[in-house]
Amino acid sequence: MKKQQEKKKKRNAMFVGDDDSVQIVRLLDQTLTSIDGVAVRQATEALDRLSTELPHFPYRLLSIASGGENPSLKVAAATYLKNFTRRSTGIEGTISEVSKEFKDQLLLVSLQADPAVLKVLLELLHIVVVSEFVKKNTWPELVPELRSAIEKSSLISSSNSSWSTVNPLMVLLTVVKPFQYFLQPKLAKEPVPQQLESITKEILVPLVSVLHRLIDKALTIHGWDELELEKTIHSICKCLYFSVKSHMPSALSPLLGSFCRDMIRILDSLSFDWSVTPPEGYLIRSKAGKRSLLLFGTLVSRHRKYSDKLVPEIVNCSMKIVKHSSNISKLGCLTERIISLAFDVISRVMEIGPGWRLLSPHFSFLLDSAIFPALVLNERDISEWEEDADEFIRKNLPSELEEISGWRDDLFTARKSAMNLLGVLAMSKGPPVSTTNKASSASCKRKKGEKSRGNNQRCMGDLLVLPFLSKFSVPSKSYKLDASTSAAYFGVLMAYGSLQEFIQEQNPEYVASFVRTRVLPIYSTPDCSPYLVASANWVLGELASCLPEEMSADVFSSLLKALAMPDQVEISCYPVRFSAAGGIGSLLENEFQPPEWLPLLQIITGKIGNEEDEDSMLFQLLKSVVESGSQDIATHIPYIVSSLVSNMLKFMPPSEDPWSQAILGGLETLAAMAQTYESSKPEADEENNQATEIWLTGQGTISKALSALLQHAWLATDVPPTSSIDHLSTMLRFIVIACTNCNVFVELRLTELLIVWADILASWNGWEESEDLSVFDCIEEVVGINNKYGFRSFLFRDMPSPPAMPVRPRSVVESIGSFVSKAILEYPSATRRACSCVHTLLYVPNYSSDIEGVGKSLAMVFTVSAFSHFLALREKPCALWRPLLLAISSCYISYSDIVEGVLEKVISGGFELWVSSLAFSYSLMCDASPSVVSEVKLYVMTVVKVIEHLLDVRHGNATDDLARKCFVSLMEASRRLKEVNEETDDDEDDGEPGEEETESEETDSNDEDSESEEYEETEEEFLERYAKAAAELEDSEVIEEADEEDDDHEIDLGSLNEIDPQKLVLTLMEKHHEKVIKLVPSEVISTFVNSFPVYTSLFFKCL
């Protein structure tokens, strides 16, 4: 170690004061002190250049980071070195080349660095450790050198060492951390990594005895001034935790009892009744206690083979902690987290085999003295309700409390953990008792890994939890609660919410009785506490999936009352309204509908616009109502839309971008209402004339309101905002569909709106933020309405008047084309729909001779985008091949010479590559999904044109192999086109018989599945399944994701629909049948002739 220190000093001396190092220091200082962004960027760019030009650049940065008196400069040097190293890291987390000397230098600097610099150096060290030690295993000196540094540090060495013990332990923590996860996911039973075994044997095992000695010392000291001692204990606890989080090193398993008991001593030394801010030393020890509980949870869930004997002691320690849950309102976040983790440890113990037997004597204590006190309303709750209502809702009315399980590790607050434990306790089974209530016992969930104990078993929810909660009286008209009993009943309601899984298992009569007697009376109590109403709302939402249908009227009436609750003089009722909205939303999600929709709609729309903070919630609820009510609320939508738009225009500044969350929520809701109303259009027949008239009147009302909104958003400012383009496109599409004549077109100012919308699309680059494909739906309607009424700006825009620049602005179709080409190239999720728009844009509009250049330019940009995307995917066929190749096909049919040139420009030999890929892709097209008539038709027409080009234009210069591929694929595609047309005709004639029977069979099958017991896989089966999935994921090439919802979407071929592709094939075969006989296998020709007897005379020679 001393020799290495001397080497380090000599190397540092080499760089001290030399010109290059001085320049680096100056540039680093410039990045710190300059307030000019340009100067900072220039300094960073200069450092980037030096990093490639200067020899020993990393060493110079290490020298700066470890020397000098300026702490900011040292941090800056370490930070740049970290980022420089990260840039050198490959995809697999390895660095191409790291010298032994640099690794040694980095380790030494880290062992002696100041705390601020150490934090950054450890991030750098992590990168190097993962590459050189974990993945490559090429740093054999690391473990012995680190052990030596620890042994010679101040708290461990018997001599007076100047080396801090904390630094080498922090380095050890950095080295151990990567092993907290499995490193070889393809192995079902991954062995302990050899590096971790080495660390354990050489360092961690000796540290276990050191931990015992240091805890002895810490517990004899009065006061909290020994910060290094506490930090050392905490660091050792963290190292031990990460070393066993996934694996169990062989050398460590015999020592589990030793260090677990030491950790229990740490936890026993903590206090849970601090009334003042605890000193720093106590906080550090609390962190060690928190890490100890995390380790206990890991041992229980991951390493039962080694830890079962320790479970009684772990449980005893955890029980001592959770009894302090009544004090959580007075405790800091860290101490509350410790109580939360203690609850989680007990929950995990409940899930293992001996857990019930071990804990059952303590159930009453747990419920009465630990779980329930954590649920009772306390002073902190009331304070948070007033000061930060959203935080109160997040912590106390958790929407994410979906699964009750002992294995959860994402709860974080004592109340959530207590609720989770209560749910686990309620579902656990008690001792055998004689009972005829088989339904109740059968409904109880079997503990994971246990065999069924028979139908005479009842859950602890029946035996203990519900009887305990029933001791608390429910408020009613005749029984008002005082503050303390009201706080207690808040806890009762929290408990009911956590019993969701247990209550779901009960029969409907029980659930109905429970809700009527224990929850609904709260709403009829005069001046009932808002805290109780909010929690009751939450309970109804949590139980939405198991509420009987006959309770619809009572439940919705209660929640509507809560949703309309005004603020009280001294108490805000926002959490009440928020939880009521959440409860209603949960009921709607579970197809639990109100008897009447209008009262709900009136309350929601009446409140929107009063408080901006609540508008987002109300819009979200309104959207849920619209989607759930669908046809039932369609008649109310015109009035609601008009009302909402009138309201939104008052607080929707057109120049603001992005808009507030409330406005975005309103736009999303309006789009949903437009879609719902459109889908409610009655069938066109004589009997429905009146209904149709009413619907059309509503359509006109909605379109006028939406047009006013879009005009306010887009036309009232020179720079229209680009926010929410997907929802605004949905509204624009509705307006387009509503235009039944030219007068309406003008009245709604549709031309101006379409121009602005298209310009926004052309410059839009926010697709990664949305997966909504409504933009493409709107594009198709816009193209259609242009054919109907023909507005000039769609295909061509005039020069602007002076003094504007004499540059012709892009037409609507050109702007749309720019967006579509970018979507094809850059947004995989939109590629399929964008390619579909290519056909629409090329063949539905009528490009007259004077603007034919527009069509040509579109074909060029579409070809470049589609072919470039295809080239990125060509190594492995995938679902996106089809839309990309067919998009090029559409371009080729009309502009073959131009497209051929573009393909050759993108890549040499591009045309033949596209042709061969097109020929090969036919089988892929048919295998990937059911054939779509329009796509097969386009394919046939394209291959015919390609063959004509190969044989006529190129005069046979194309290779026979390429021509053979084209002929074979053409014959197969022609046969498939005939089959698809016949299938389509049959479907139209016969309908879809047997659907009802199939559905009935599926229902019966589902009923049988639901009656059978749920199979729970073993740990070994789980690991084998995930190892297999990991292997499949790694072995298969990752292909960009694409939206497959529109796989069977018919493309609009416009004018191409007038062409009969079979006539084209016949003409081609008559002209080149001799070439076909020469190139195509006879069996292919025979199959083709069987489908088309008309070709018999042409191919009789080979039949």
UniProtKB/TrEMBL annotation:
<dbReference type="GO" id="GO:0006606">
    <property type="term" value="P:protein import into nucleus"/>
</dbReference>
<feature type="compositionally biased region" description="Acidic residues">
    <location>
        <begin position="982"/>
        <end position="1020"/>
    </location>
</feature>
<protein>
    <submittedName>
        <fullName>Importin-beta N-terminal domain</fullName>
    </submittedName>
</protein>
<feature type="compositionally biased region" description="Polar residues">
    <location>
        <begin position="433"/>
        <end position="443"/>
    </location>
</feature>
<dbReference type="Pfam" id="PF03810">
    <property type="entry name" value="IBN_N"/>
</dbReference>
<dbReference type="GO" id="GO:0031267">
    <property type="term" value="F:small GTPase binding"/>
</dbReference>
<dbReference type="GO" id="GO:0005049">
    <property type="term" value="F:nuclear export signal receptor activity"/>
</dbReference>
<keyword id="KW-0539">Nucleus</keyword>
<dbReference type="InterPro" id="IPR001494">
    <property type="entry name" value="Importin-beta_N"/>
</dbReference>
<feature type="domain" description="Importin N-terminal">
    <location>
        <begin position="43"/>
        <end position="108"/>
    </location>
</feature>
<feature type="region of interest" description="Disordered">
    <location>
        <begin position="430"/>
        <end position="456"/>
    </location>
</feature>
<dbReference type="GO" id="GO:0005829">
    <property type="term" value="C:cytosol"/>
</dbReference>
<feature type="region of interest" description="Disordered">
    <location>
        <begin position="978"/>
        <end position="1020"/>
    </location>
</feature>
<dbReference type="GO" id="GO:0006611">
    <property type="term" value="P:protein export from nucleus"/>
</dbReference>
<keyword id="KW-0813">Transport</keyword>
<dbReference type="GO" id="GO:0005635">
    <property type="term" value="C:nuclear envelope"/>
</dbReference>
